[in-house]
Amino acid sequence: MPRIGVRDLFVAKVTADTPLTYTTATAPKRLAKAIQLDINPTTVTAELYADDGLDEKESSLVGMDISLNANDIAPGMDAYLLGKKQDENGAVIDSKDDQAPVVALMFKAPLSEKAGGGFEYRVLYCMKFEPYSETFQSKGENLTFQTPTITGKAIAREKDGAFQNKLRIPNDAENDLKSIAETWFTKPYEPTGSST
Q1: Structure pTM?
Q2: CB 6 within 8 A of CB 181
Q3: pLDDT in tens, 106-161
Q4: Could you give the CA distance from residue 13 to residue 102 in angstroms, rounded to a whole number?
Q5: Beta-bridge mates of residue 10
Q6: In the chain, where are the structural domains located?
C-alpha cells in the first residue's frame, strides 16, 4: 500500500527496559511536525563458501538508522531528546556531560485511498537521538526555510528483541482496530499475540 505522507511525531522516555519489563513515561510528548522520516535497517551478514561456491548465507538485523527532518525542534524538545539541561528562562545548555535518553518514537503515515485509506501506525521502541547540525543562512532575493534534521539509532528492546511495530488500519477497519488507533499516541503499542 502506498503511503502519502507522515505526521504526528511523538516521543516518550523509556523508563525501564529489561528482559521482563518495558515501560515509558506516562505522557508521550509531541516532537514536531514531520517533513521527512527515513528508517534504514542495519544488518550484519555472514557468508560460507564451500566447494568453490556460496554454500550458506545468514543475515541479522542489528539496528535501524533514523533520519528525521522536522519543521522545528523547540528548545524544550531539544533538551528532552538529547539529555540537555534547561535554565529557568528556557535557555538550553549544551554540555559535555549531556546523555541522550532512550526514547520510543511513534508516528503515523496516511495510506492512499486506492489502498483503502486510513493510516499506517508505527512505534520504534528504543532509540537514541544524536546532536544535530544547524544551518543559519542570510535572506536573499528568495526566502529559504532552514529546518533541522536529527538522526538517531533504534536498537532492539530487551523484553522481546523488538525494534519496531507497524500496524495498518484502513478506514473501514473493525472497531477493535479503531480503538487501537485512538490510543496509539498514549503509550507505545504492545503486541497482543503473534503468528507466523
Answers
A1: 0.87
A2: no
A3: 999 998 887 778 899 999 999 999 988 888 888 888 888 889 999 999 999 999 99
A4: 6
A5: 30, 106
A6: 7-44+58-132+145-180
Q: 105 falls in which pLDDT band (50, 70, 90)? A: very high
Read off the C-alpha cell for 125: 521502541
Grid cell 563458501 is found at 49
- Which has the closest alpha carbon to 8: 22, 29, 23, 26? 29
Region for residue 39 given its phi and psi (left: phi exceeds 0; alpha: psi -120 to 50; beta: otherwise): beta
Work out the number of other CB atoms within 10 angstroms of the CB of residue 154.
23
Grid cell 535554565 in the structure block, residue: 87
Asked whether 91 and 75 are in contact (CB, 8 A), the reply is yes
Count the Cβ atoms, other than its own, within 10 Å of residue 84.
19
**Rg of the chain (C-alpha set):** 20
